[in-house]
Structures are given as C-alpha cells and as structure tokens.
Design brief:
Chain B: InterPro entries: Aconitase/3IPM_dehydase_swvl, AconitaseA/IPMdHydase_ssu_swvl, IPMI_Swivel, LeuD, LeuD_type2/HacB/DmdB. The structure holds 2 protein chains of 2 kinds. Chain A is an alpha/beta fold. Chain A has helices at 5-14, 39-50, 75-90, 108-114, 146-155, 180-191, 206-210, 213-221, 237-245, 289-292, 304-307, 310-320, 336-344, 352-359, 412-419, and strands at 24-28, 31-35, 62-65, 123-126, 140-143, 157-161, 164-171, 199-204, 230-232, 264-269, 276-278, 286-288, 299-303, 329-332, 346-347, 350-351, 362-363, 387-390, 406-409. Chain A folds into 2 domains: 5-267, Aconitase, domain 3 (2-Layer Sandwich); 276-429, Aconitase, domain 3. Chain A has a 5-stranded parallel β-sheet with strand order 17-14-13-18-19. Chain A has a 4-stranded parallel β-sheet with strand order 3-2-4-5, with helices on both faces. In chain A, strands 9-8-7-10 form a 4-stranded parallel β-sheet. The longest helix of chain B has 9 residues, at 109-117. Chain B has a 7-stranded mixed β-sheet with strand order 4-3-2-1-5-6-7. Classes of the chains: A alpha/beta, B alpha/beta. The structure holds iron/sulfur cluster (SF4). The site of iron/sulfur cluster has 11 residues of chain A, from helix 11.
Chain lengths: 431, 186
C-alpha cells in the first residue's frame, strides 16, 4: 500500500522498507537543534546519564542558537547563555551561533532555514515545539524535551510513534489580502488545538505551492498549535531554488503516493477565504477579522518565528507606508538576516526599515522577545490589561506576559491595518 | 516503580498549556541545582487562572504560601493536557511539587513524551472527561499496573487506557533506565 511523505521519511530513517501509523520506530537523527532555554539542561542530563564516557554522537549535526532570553538584564537568563557558551567552547561546537558576535542569528527556526540545515527527506529534531517549522522543506521535523535531546546527543537516536497523516489542500489563487497565517488560523478553528495530536499535517494544493518559503514556514510552524507531531509540504521548484541559493544540492525528495492513506482530508479554496483572527485565549478561538473589527487595542506586535520573517514585514510595510501607528507597535525581525534585508530592500524607493520607523514602530533586535513574555524587561511584553494584536503563534493566558492581558493572533496585514487605526481592522479596508 | 498511588486529587479543565503549568518567565532557574530547582515546584501551575484552579469550586491554590511542595499528589484533568511549548520544565515542575500521576482525557505529544522519557510522572489517559467526577481535595487511589483510578469516598473505580508500547519505559522509570536495561546503552 502507498505511503505518505512523512511515512517514507520515517521508513528511511528507521532503516525499513515501510512503516505503518501507530508503529513505534527508532529513528536515526540528521540534525539536533537546541537553544538557550533547553540547551543547558540537555547537556547536563547528557553528562549525568552518560558519565565519564559521554561523547557527542556527531558534532556536525548539533546546532545551537541562543534566541529566547537574549536582550535582558535577568541574571539567570544570562547565566543560561553563559553555560551554552562554555559547552560550545569545551566541545568545540562549530554550529554554535553566539550572541554578541557576527554569527548571532536570532530565532532558531528561521536561522535553521537560512543557514541551510533544512534538507528535504531528513529527520530534524529540536528542543522547541515549533521545530515543526522546518517541515516546510519536505523533511520530518518535530520538537522534543531535554531528556530526548540528551539521548540523541549521546546516541543519535530517538523513538517515535509513526503518525497518521492529515491532508490540507488549498486550491485557488491567493487574494492580496490573504496570507498563510489566515490559512493556518482557519484550520485551527476547524480542527481545534488537539485536532492533529500525534498526527502529521501535510499541506498541498495549488495555493500552497504558490507560497514562498517564508509563507510556507508559517503554515508548518503552527502545526503544533493543532497538536500536530509535524507539518510537511512537498518539495517543488520554489524549495529547490531556495536551497540552490544556499548551495545545497544533496537531499532526497519524497512524494506521497496516490494511494497513500490519510486520517482525513480537508479542502479549501483561498479565493473564498477571508482574513481570520484567533481571539483570546486560544489559537483555535478563530473568527473572521470583520466580526471583531473595532476592538480597541493597546499594543501591536510583529515578530517571532511565525510572523517575524521578511515576507511578514514586507506585507506589513505595504500597509504602513506613509501612515502612522495609533498604538505602540513593536517590530522584532526573527533573525539578523531578516533585519539586514529590511535595511536593504525597499518599496517605492523607501527601505522597509525606513517605512516601519517613519510609521512610528519600535524596532527591536532579533530574538524571541515578547513572543513568550520573557523576563520583566523584555521589549513589547504585555503588561496588565493590555489588548494586543500579534503575528505570533500562541495566545494562551499569560503567554506574552501579563495573565490579565488579551491577545489576538492575526496576519501581518491585519496587524498593520489595526496599528494605523488603533482598533482591529480588516486589511481589505486599507489595502 | 510504585504500582499503587494514593493521595489528594487536584482537578483541572481542558487545554492546560505549559505556560499555565510553568510560566515562561520562570524558565531561567537551574534544573540541576537542588536548592534552586525547588523554585519550579513553588511556581508549578501558577499560570492557571484562579477561577479554574482546583475544580469544581476554583480558587484553590495548588501551592500554599512559600512552599514548593503541594498537598496534591495526583492531578485529574480534561483534554489536551500539556499543550504548548516543549519545555521539560513542565513535568519537572509538577514532579518537584510532588505530583506522581496525571490522569487526563488526552495529552499534547511533547508533554507526554517528556513525562515518560524523563520519568518525572506517570501520564495516564482516561476514557472521556472523568475530571467532572472528582472534587479537588478528595482522596483517590491509582493502580498503575491495572490502569484504574478509584474515588475513595464511594469506591467508584474508573478504567484508564493501556499506555501501549511505552509501558516498558514508564515501568523502567524513564528512557535512560529503559535503554540501559534493554542493552541499548551501557
Ligand atoms: S519566536 Fe516564539 S514561538 Fe518562535 S521559538 Fe521563539 S518563543 Fe518560540
């Protein structure tokens, strides 16, 4: 019987001809990624468990990005980065991207793509739930905790239960007011936050293949918000072009068989879809932007691995150009590479950074910043009863800081349209 | 591992995410330093909105005052327990606070894996939402081997699901113990 892309990748990594959903397999890991929050405990568990003999299975396959708690005076947070630095030094880890150096990248999931670690057909495991982002490149990527990561660090192996796959097909031509964020928020509303638990989410269809890599990463990024083990998008010319620009030629392209078995199939037509928000306090509490239009805001936030990529700022800048924001608006480029492009690329002769600054946005240095609240001095953090509209991925109580605040999740177009009016605004009103 | 666990139950609802279990601002503490890691116990479940803390009544603190250990050693919750981030600090915080078993209708994958592989606590799944059958503070008994939970006030027993292939890892007390026992690592 036919297999899905996810099943084919897992079969290859398990050294088997085929696998079936529900089966437990041991996988050979191609890349292990960690960051400043989970890196130190991962190394500590690895040292404790493997003792004297502790040996990193393959240093070239270990990638470390400090990104979560970076620009803060919090002593404990800084200590974590210090611990990472010491490990990187002690074990001569060349894929360590230290903060305060030229090599500093910012948010891990975006940096993985930019630095060429996302190779189709491979297994990429990270100590972060949004590791599923990398699935946009047709690979199996999923998040784990410190113990699993420590086990990989010593053995290069992980056990995994082969997931059933769900397929999400988007047809039609993307309207200019719609983004990948609206597509994934729509799915979340339809299947809820546990609608894909222990399953693979495969995205396909004409509209998906029209999306650039940034937008595809928005889809796979939020697979975990539906409980998904991984999100995955078949490789096409756009993927291959992105890889070619980074001089990556060596990878395996898998396709789902025509007779592959799916748990369920959902079909959408983007031409009839409208901008969507997730209302407080859950990513599946979705509604059309026009139904909550007029809601008063105290803060707008454009950033994170979901909504802080180059395309996200490009979209926001289309609306912000020549306007000024009515409420404090924070722009946090996910990576230093994104920040560099904002200074370089322009719309109507003005760089995107100039557009954002002229509109009155506060641009912060690349990191996770207020996406996860963070220490009290984190820029853009929600305080007290803030009402925030944000391009991030989670709006659980307290996620962006204050437990009393309310967070709406939306596309960069919707956030930009709302920033210039001070109330939640449908981007169709201003485009 | 102990097969029978008796204790006071703490009841929660659906979608208890990792920010409610341990708010992100506390993730900076050391997990390996004995003294400092007690902070995780102290802040365990501190992100749960008060009206939803300790159902059905609510407003029952999981941790009293400056303590780092809770009087509740068993949690019974609804669906999608532990959704959100991959932080292993979440099951660790519950373990530090003294939780031995969580019974929920369903779990987010990473929380489930972390609980089992780290040997922090035993996550068991119920058939349907049995959290509505329990009151925070009452005594319950869990039989891990037979996968049951009993309400001691009237002896009513609820059958829980068999953990499947991961039972050997649960019984070994974690992934490393399991791997050593089965000869995968020395
Ligand atoms: S930007 Fe937010 S969601 Fe992405 S890795 Fe950082 S904290 Fe996690």
């Amino acid at each position: 019987m036919g297999m899905t892309i996810t099943e084919k990748i897992l079969a290859k990594a398990a050294g088997k001809k085929s696998v079936t959903p529900g089966e437990n397999v041991w996988l050979t890991v191609d890349v292990l990624m960690t960051h400043d929050v989970c890196g130190p405990p991962t190394f500590q568990i690895w040292e404790r468990e493997f003792g004297e003999k502790a040996k990193i299975w393959d240093k070239n396959k270990l990638v470390i990005f400090p990104d979560h708690y970076i620009f803060t005076a919090d002593v404990h947070a800084n200590r974590n980065v210090n611990i990472l630095r010491q490990y990187a030094d002690k074990y001569q880890l060349r894929n360590y991207y230290d903060v305060g150096t030229e090599r500093y990248k910012g948010v891990c999931h975006i940096a993985l793509a930019e630095e060429g670690y996302n190779r189709p057909g491979t297994v990429l495991i990270g100590t972060d739930s949004h590791t599923c982002t990398a699935g946009a490149f047709g690979l199996f990527a999923t998040g784990v905790g410190n113990t699993d990561a420590a086990f990989i660090l010593g053995t290069g192996k992980i056990w995994e239960k082969v997931p059933e796959s769900m397929k999400f097909i988007f047809e039609g031509r993307m309207p200019q007011y719609l983004t990948a964020k609206d597509m994934i928020l729509q799915i979340l509303g339809d299947i809820t936050t546990d609608g894909a638990t222990y399953r693979a989410m495969e995205f396909d269809g004409y509209a998906v293949h029209q999306l650039n890599i940034d937008e595809r990463m928005t889809l796979t990024n939020m697979a975990v918000e539906a409980g998904g083990m991984n999100g995955i998008i078949p490789v096409d010319e756009i993927t291959q072009q992105y890889l070619a620009q980074r001089e990556i030629w060596d990878y395996d392209v898998f396709e789902s068989d025509a007779d592959a078995k799916y748990h369920s199939v959902y079909e959408y037509n983007v031409e009839t879809m409208e901008p969507v928000v997730a209302k407080p306090h859950s990513p599946d509490n979705s509604d059309l932007v026009r139904n909550v239009a007029g809601t008063k805001l105290t803060k707008c936030y454009i950033g994170s691995c979901t909504g802080g990529k180059f395309t996200d700022f490009y979209n926001a800048a289309k609306i912000l150009q020549g306007k000024s924001v009515k409420v404090p608006t924070f722009a946090v480029p996910a990576s230093t590479e994104v920040a560099r492009r904002l200074r370089k690329e322009s719309i109507n002769g003005q760089t995107i950074e100039e557009i954002l600054l002229e509109a009155g946005c506060v641009i912060a240095p690349s990191s996770c910043a207020a996406c996860l609240g963070g220490p009290a001095d984190t820029i853009g953090r929600s305080v007290d009863k803030d009402v925030v509209i944000s391009t991030t991925n989670r709006n659980f109580p307290g996620r962006m800081g204050s437990k009393k605040s309310e967070v709406y999740l939306a596309s960069p177009l919707t956030v930009a349209a709302s920033a210039i009016t001070g109330v939640i605004t449908d981007p169709r009103e201003v485009l | 591992m102990q097969k029978i666990i008796k204790g006071k139950v703490y009841v929660l609802g659906d979608n208890i995410d990792t920010d409610q279990i341990i708010p992100a601002e506390h993730l900076v503490y050391s997990l390996s330093d004995q003294e400092e890691s007690k902070k995780y116990g102290h802040f365990a479940l501190s992100g749960v909105p008060p009206q939803k803390a300790g159902l059905p009544r609510g407003n029952i603190p999981f941790i009293e005052g400056e303590n780092y250990q809770s009087e509740f050693s068993i949690i019974v919750a609804g669906s999608n327990f532990g959704c959100g981030s991959s932080r292993e600090h979440a099951p660790f915080a519950l373990q530090m606070a003294g939780v031995q078993v969580v019974v929920a209708e369903s779990y987010a994958r990473i929380f489930y894996r972390n609980s089992v592989d780290g040997g922090f606590l035993v996550p068991l799944e119920s058939e349907g939402k049995i959290n509505q059958q329990f009151e925070t503070g009452e005594q319950v008994e869990i039989n891990i081997h037979r996968q049951t939970i009993t309400r001691l006030r009237d002896g009513q027993t609820f059958k829980l699901k068999h953990p499947g292939d991961v039972l050997p890892i649960i019984e070994a007390g974690g992934l490393f113990e399991y791997a050593r026992k089965s000869g995968m690592i020395s």
